[in-house]
Amino acid sequence: MIVSPPNLGQDFHDIPLATELEAALGLPAYLERDTNVAALGEHAFGAARNVEDFLYLTVSTGVGGAIMTAGRLLHGPDGTAGELGHISVELDGPLCGCGGTGHLEAISAGVALARDARAALARGDSPFLAARAAASPQGPAALDARDVAEGEDAGDLACAALMAHARHAFAMACAGFVNAFNPDLIVVGGSIAEHQGDRLLEPARAEIRRGAFPTPGSRVRVVPAQLGPDVSLAGAQPLVSGRLDDERWRAGRARLGATEFPGRP
Ligand SMILES: [Zn+2]
């Protein structure tokens, strides 16, 4: 059941997607959040092989997360646990798409960088973004996170400040995650993370050394994801093989509209 996804409209609330897919295909179907499936994929085939306690983060259009603890995804009673992009890192920060204030996603995600790029352009702070907007038929609406990253590389001070702010927020959040979850690994995927590489990960490692508790801080490694954009496809195999014969995952299917979560396998 898709219950209330924060970045989609009312049409996507309370949709029994797995049941409808089963009816249409005549095959068993299982629904899971993309980041949870990505964590299963990295666990089975990628950066977290043989690691039972890790966090998966994706920094892309949004910031998503998943928590694997003792080899199992942490779901919580409603299946919503692991939304690591929706924690506050700025008391008076920007409003998030979910309605929260100062969330990591509202600062470090692609949509946040695009929003901040348009604001920098409107203030007249960025010659680089002004040139990019002028070169596009869509004008300022065409600006996205890639423009900001490329502006930093070109020496534009406003773009460099935005990227540094995004990396700082990500680093602070990672140090908090280490204190909260004591993971062996933080696996970081997503298009922005892929493009930034160690420019994103190294500040997180430094902030963990500086600000996290020494014991979990000295254990954890912050590493890039290995499976690229097909990670959720790779995760479908362990997802289905882990649930196929487990009747608990089918317990709520008969009552369409039920929001009860069947619990983890
Ligand atoms: Zn949020």
Concise overview:
This protein has 265 residues and is an alpha/beta fold.
Q: Would you give an account of this structure?
A:
With 265 residues, the protein is of the alpha/beta class. It has a domain at 49-228: ATPase, nucleotide binding domain (Nucleotidyltransferase, domain 5, 2-Layer Sandwich). The chain has helices at 17-25, 34-45, 105-108, 110-123, 127-135, 145-153, 157-181, 191-196, 198-211, 214-219, 231-243, and strands at 54-59, 63-69, 72-73, 185-189, 221-224. Strand 2 and strand 3 form a beta hairpin. Helix 2 packs across helix 11 and helix 6 (145-153) packs across helix 7 (157-181). The relative contact order is 0.16.
Please provide the count of β strands: 5
- The helix/strand order is HHEEEHHHHHEHHHEH
Which small molecules are bound? zinc ion
What is the 3D form?
globular
Largest sheet: 5 strands, mixed
Features:
alpha/beta; 46% helix; 11 helices; binds zinc ion; five-stranded mixed beta sheet; Nucleotidyltransferase, domain 5; globular; 265 residues
List the helices and strands and how they pair.
Elements: H1 17-25, H2 34-45, E1 54-59, E2 63-69, E3 72-73, H3 105-108, H4 110-123, H5 127-135, H6 145-153, H7 157-181, E4 185-189, H8 191-196, H9 198-211, H10 214-219, E5 221-224, H11 231-243
